[in-house]
Design a protein that fits this description.
Elements lengths: L1 E8 L2 E9 L6 E8 L8 E7 L4 E9 L5 E9 L5 E10 H14 L1 H7 L2 H4 L6 E10 L4 E11 L4 E6 L10 E12 L2 E13 L5 E7 L6 E5 L1 H10 L10 H16 L14 E7 L4 H12 L6 E7 L5 H8 L6 E5 L6 H11 L4 E4 L5 E2 L3 H11 L5 E9 L5 E5 L6 H4 L10 E3 H7 L9 H12 L3 E12 L13 H17 L4 E5 L6 E5 L7 E7 L3 H14 L5 E8 L4 H13 L3 E6 L5 H10 L5 E5 L3 E3 L4 H9 L4 E9 L5 E3 L2 E4 L9 E4 L19 E3 L6 E5 H6 L12 H11 L3 E12 L11 H17 L1 H6 L11 H5 L2
Parallel strand pairs: 15-16, 15-18, 16-17, 20-23, 26-27, 26-29, 27-28, 31-37
Antiparallel strand pairs: 1-2, 2-5, 3-6, 4-5, 6-7, 8-9, 9-12, 10-13, 11-12, 13-14, 18-22, 19-23, 20-21, 20-22, 24-25, 29-36, 30-37, 31-32, 31-36, 33-34, 35-37
């Protein structure tokens, strides 16, 4: 047996072998073993047998952690007796370098071998990954995908470790089985979720046939994991990753080297008073900070440096040496604390806007120019803030924070605004900072500011660099533990001033808070559940609501539509006898999700409506109280829940509108944080925080009855898709908030699948409804989502100045 070619791809080695076939009627089988004799998976694909009886195969083996792997060919006669065998040993090192050589010098040959297992459909099982994400807290990788099998076949799954040994206990969840058709052949697809340890080892998922078809395997070595993380990651903020963000930083640096600052000399607009308290500031921090202000392309500013450490002779000398009429050094008698020190600067500020700036941080040269441009477009703006990143001790810009537009409920969880805050001077001089909140004085200031005005602009660009130092809260909020409690007190006072019956609580994450809103009285909540047959699904939903929900004043209205099974109507009779707050009403018409819910609402008596899919199951007892406490607020119109797939990954943590990069882009609404582990905080912890959003799913949506009626309910032009998107956006148009709360946690038994809306039967309907969305809500397709900016999509890079 001779090896005639080698290549690798996605955790697999493809080995071209040939040998003489003396008896064409014989059967050829392939085997593989490690150097320790452990049998390894292998599949072989016949390429040809030529006139000289030279038989050619491509053997496919997973790239495990073994040092060597053997490929053994055996021939058997028609009676099963072995005629001959041949064996060849390959080292992993040789496979790697031979593959690189062949890709470079025999590319066409290598590509002809590669993926032969995936392009073969007859008598073949395929495993296709679609989602790959790391659950950091659990030290796991989560892989989702589907196994595609010949019709009538069933797969037996095994997990192998890096040495090829079977892992006796492993975490594999199988979803529903769906029939499909590929290349004219009937196939069967089984979705799966696999969790493997993120321990640096290689693992291989093996799907073996019970009918003699070729097995499929998914090998997750380091290279394959990296490839799947890049191509199958559900993360919405990939550009926040170290490698991705490095590209953004380099592009920005290149841009700035080409800027002619004098071209901006005539830019006019408001005057910015930049306030910087100094206390024992290291000289190199001072030079960087002042230099970043002097390097601003926009020139109408003043810099007020408040020196609270006059005994520091070196610092005093460095301040004396500053030669710029726009810089004012104010010597303080002693250090009265950051709030009191800053207030001196606010009092002496002469600008239109006061800008808060820390002594060890730096600004992007475009910072003030972009602020001035925003104010020029809207002179009524009372405050502005921007995106930021961290400046580490090696001088690298890392960990960018791409922020939401003004988001009141997110602000009540933590100070996501932070830097670079510019406030209209009249507000700054009126509010000032309060010394009793030192450590969280900026948070207290913001909370008091938003009680006066919410005319606050977010400039979606990284214009502020927050230095990471040993004492900085940028490095660890735990460095200033007192700030955590000061922030909680500031938040509680804010809630009290707003007249909200709510309690601010600390969390295990410093300077992140949780607000519990009390339910006022006991208003009736009407739960609307459309249903067609599906007794098992519906009964699970109703029983979980009835048996697990602590809030008791609710009614359940099941909206029967077009059921045909006798057991369904028997269940309706039985469930109404068992629960006196359950009613069944009948919709007599074709399926229209919007019309069905509108019909159900007419039979509802509640002050609040809760739209609920029949495939929902309650997890935590306080879910309805959490939603109702928020929905009772005067400024809230809709509250959405956090929904999980049955495999304990996120199905819904809000919906965002993806901006069109051009007129040909699909864009539109999509779920954020989907497929993350249920405990994964997501980007900037946003999968675990109460926040305002543009859209939440109607699979579990609470709304005020008054708002629902005023808007005429759901838009019945949206028969299946986008009705919840349209309703949420219409509610936002009224000035009411759409709030997402992770405190309402439920299972949504919507199986992970390839997406039913791509099936031929639904394409025309889907496109029609998408067209209506584009027509009605074109602003979101053009401007994007205010709560998830351009950094959440690839558009970010094309928009970067």
């Amino acid at each position: 047996m001779r090896c005639t070619g080698i290549c690798r791809g996605q955790g697999v080695a493809y080995l071209a072998v040939e040998f003489e076939m003396h008896d064409r009627a014989s059967e050829v089988r392939f085997f593989s073993h490690s150097e320790e004799g452990v049998e390894l998976p292998i599949e072989a694909y016949h390429v040809e047998t030529d006139e000289q009886d030279i038989c050619r195969y491509v053997a496919v083996v997973p790239l495990l952690d073994t040092k060597r792997v053997s490929v053994e060919m055996r021939q058997y006669d028609e009676h099963g007796s072995e005629l001959r065998h041949a064996r060849k040993m390959y080292s992993r090192f040789a496979i790697k370098w031979a593959s690189r050589f062949n890709y470079k010098f025999s590319y066409d040959r290598a590509m002809a071998m590669r993926d032969i297992d995936r392009s073969t459909y007859s008598k073949q099982i395929h495993i296709t990954p679609q989602v790959f994400v790391e659950a950091l807290a659990k030290q796991q990788y989560i892989v989702k995908g589907y196994a595609c099998l010949p019709a009538g076949d069933y797969a037996m799954f095994r997990l192998l470790d890096g040495m090829g040994r079977a892992v006796e206990t492993f975490d594999l969840s199988l979803g529903k089985v769906e029939e499909s058709n590929v290349l004219g052949m009937p196939r069967r697809e089984v979705s799966f979720t696999l969790r493997i340890p993120a321990d640096g080892s290689t693992y291989c998922l093996l799907a073996e046939s019970d009918q003699g078809n070729k097995a499929g395997f998914l090998c997750l070595d380091a290279a394959a994991r990296g490839g799947y993380a890049a191509s199958c990651s559900p993360l919405m903020y990939r550009c926040a990753g170290l490698n991705e963000y490095r590209g953004r930083v380099l592009a920005r640096k290149k841009l700035l080297t080409c800027i002619d600052a004098d071209a901006y000399a005539d830019c006019s607009g408001p005057r910015f008073s930049i306030i910087v308290p100094l206390f024992r500031t290291p000289l190199h921090f001072l030079r960087d900070m002042v230099g970043s202000v002097q390097g601003q392309l926009y020139r109408n500013w003043e810099l007020l440096l408040l020196n609270a450490s006059p005994e520091d002779k070196e610092l005093a000398a460095a301040l004396d040496a500053l030669d710029d009429d726009r810089i004012k050094v104010i010597e303080l008698a002693d250090n009265a604390g950051i709030a009191a020190n800053t207030n001196v600067g606010i009092e002496q500020a002469s600008g239109d806007y006061v800008v808060f700036f820390d002594h060890d941080d730096t600004l992007d040269p475009f910072a003030l120019l972009k602020y001035a441009q925003h104010i020029g477009q809207d002179p009524t703006l009372d405050a502005l803030y921007c995106d930021e990143d961290f400046l580490n001790e090696e001088g690298q810009y890392v960990a960018p924070h791409f922020k939401s537009d003004f988001n009141l409920d997110l602000l009540r969880c933590h100070n996501y605004i932070t830097h670079l805050l510019a406030v209209r001077a009249t507000y700054a001089k009126d509010l000032m900072l309060r010394s009793e909140f030192d450590g969280a004085q900026d948070y207290d200031f913001l909370l008091r500011l938003v009680e006066r005005t919410t005319n606050i602009a977010h400039v979606p660009d990284v214009l502020y660099h927050w230095r990471i130092s040993d004492t900085s809260t940028a490095k660890s909020a735990g460095n200033k533990g007192y700030a955590d409690e000061a922030g909680r007190k500031a938040l509680q006072e804010h809630l009290d001033r707003c007249g909200l019956a709510a309690t601010a609580e600390g969390t295990e994450n410093a300077c992140f808070y949780h607000v519990t809103y009390e339910v006022a009285g006991a208003p009736l909540v009407s739960i609307l559940i459309p249903n067609k047959d599906s007794v098992k699904v519906l009964s699970r939903c109703i029983d979980s609501v009835e048996q697990k929900t602590t809030y008791r004043n609710f009614e359940i209205i099941v909206i029967e539509n077009n059921s045909v099974q006798d057991e369904t109507f028997e269940y309706y009779r039985e469930v109404q006898e068992r629960y006196d707050n359950v009613r069944v009403v009948t919709w007599d018409g074709p399926f229209n999700y919007s019309a069905i819910n509108n019909f159900g609402a007419k039979h509802a008596s509640g002050e609040y409506l809760l739209l609920l899919n029949n495939d929902i199951e309650v997890i935590e007892a306080g879910w309805m109280s959490a939603m109702l406490g928020l929905c009772q607020r005067e400024d809230v119109g809709i509250v959405g829940a956090k929904l999980l797939f049955p495999d304990d990954t996120v199905q819904h943590a809000g919906v965002m509108m993806i901006k069109c990069g051009n007129v040909n882009d699909n864009a539109g609404p999509m779920h954020v944080f989907s497929h993350l582990d249920r405990d994964d905080p997501g980007y900037m912890r946003r999968a675990q925080l109460v926040q305002d959003l543009s859209i939440v799913t109607a699979a579990c949506l609470m709304t005020k009855r008054s708002v629902f009626d005023a808007l005429g309910g759901l838009n019945e032009d949206f028969v299946v898709a986008f009705n919840d998107v349209d309703y949420c956006l219409r509610v936002r148009e009224t000035g009411k908030l759409v709030v997402f709360t992770p405190d309402a946690l439920l299972y949504h038994y919507e199986s992970f699948s390839r997406g039913s809306d791509t099936l031929d039967a639904n394409v025309a309907r889907f496109i029609r409804e998408q067209g209506k969305m584009r027509s009605i809500w074109s602003r979101y397709y053009v401007q994007g989502d205010p709560y998830h900016g351009p950094a959440s999509t690839a558009i970010y890079y094309s928009e970067m100045p």
